Input
Amino acid sequence: MAKKQTVDREKIIEVAVDLFYEKGYAATSIRDISSVMKISIATLYYYFRDKEDLLFTIVEDMGNQLLSDLSAVKDRADDPLDGLREMMSRHILLTEKAHKRAKIFVEEKHNLSKKSWRIVHEQDRRVYDMMINQLEEIQKLGIISVDSLPITAFAIFGMINWCYRWYKKDGPFSIDEVSERLINIILYGIINPQQ
Output
């Protein structure tokens, strides 16, 4: 009787992250993952139902991390504007810290089955609701100048979620400097109010 290979499940996920990041989800096969892992396809199927199960795990984990980071801020922020700044900063830092996963999170969700997509969409909805609630708290202070909080929330997410595409660790700015500048653009725009 053949001995079953023991494998670190997290290592399989990391290999899948690397391959999905480099080649894209559609161009990566289960065989590619098992080949890099030097394990049989049967062993891989012991840990994951299929390639989509791997994608779902990656996307759901990233969503859970974002929810956790934003909830931690929401629960402790006294000032709504400071809370919004910290929420955006945490989101930007997570995008940099997990840049490969961020790309997969943003670009590969459409490959999920309807059942998995509904679960991930519910996560997205919770993140959106947190942002809307934070913006509503700021609106109550009378310092927000926009008339559509949903458009504002989506604009914030759009700016932050694409950081992984252009931010370079070896570039001229640290992630903290990028975070500060991006948050200032979001909050104050690009026009000097003195002009």
Q: What stands out?
A: The chain has two domains: 1-48, 51-188. The chain has ten helices and no strands.
